[in-house]
Sequence to fold (225 residues):
Amino acid sequence: RKEVEQDPGPFNVPEGATVAFNCTYSNSASQSFFWYRQDCRKEPKLLMSVYSSGNEDGRFTAQLNRASQYISLLIRDSKLSDSATYLCVVNKFSGNTPLVFGKGTRLSVIA
Amino acid sequence: DTGVSQDPRHKITKRGQNVTFRCDPISEHNRLYWYRQTLGQGPEFLTYFQNEAQLEKSRLLSDRFSAERPKGSFSTLEIQRTEQGDSAMYLCASSLADGVQPQHFGDGTRLSIL
Fold:
């Protein structure tokens, strides 16, 4: 089983749509969870950290289910500028240890 | 610009040559990480440092790879006798060591082996 699994997509959605990405991780020792965004041929950029209580940042909502080892990202009112690859990321162990990335889910928002 | 800086941005070289990349982390960050990313994959961990100490090396880091962070500030990643399979984006990230701090990435060095 891969350490972090994501549906690679692509997800092609119209502007204004709501889209959800899911991710599962295999290492129950992971303590930190993130969503990173990566534009084509650019570096990954932190989108948001994911907390057990769930968290929201504008149009973006992240959820964590530790029992199921499952992470989600919801994007509401999609914009053209949301088109990118979204990487689900967990750390290997507790503390600030190396990150383990999923392959990413590609999103295209269409006018 | 106070972000993570990598140099060069692109490197094209012939198979068998040695290459060296440099990373300058965010100045107050004591942890520095190297990752490699190939097309269609997420970044894969190579090695990381806390200050000048190299704390972990991935099994991806063969004997041809070496990384240093001699003064606990910038780091270099050297690949000796490059192979076609080394073609990838090499990403550097830095963070604080305390608690749970997100890692911030540089623009990467794209290596192409001819």
About this structure: Chain A has a mean pLDDT of 93.
